[in-house]
Amino acid sequence: MRGFWVQQLPTIGLVCGFMVLVLVWLRWGLARVPPISAMFVSALVAMTLLLIAALTAAPWSTACAVGAVALGMGHAGWMLGALAMRPRPPVRSAPQTRPSPAPAAAPAAVPVLDRKTLGRYRVDREIGRGAMGAVYLGTDPKINRQVAIKTMALSKEFHGQELTEARQRFFREAETAGRLQHPDIVTIFDAGEDQDLAFIAMEYLKGEDLQRHTQNLLPVADVVRITARVAEALAYAHSQGVVHRDIKPANVMIDLASDLVKVTDFGIARIADSSRTRTGMVLGTPSFMSPEQMAGRRVDGRSDLYSLGVMLYQLLTGHLPHRADSMATLMYEIANQTPPDVRNWRPEIPEQLARAVALALEKRPESRYPDGRQMAADLTAALALVGGSPPPPASPEGGLPPNSSGFDATVKINRGE
Question: Where are the alpha helices (DSSP H) in 108-192?
Answer without folding.
Answer: 154-157, 160-178
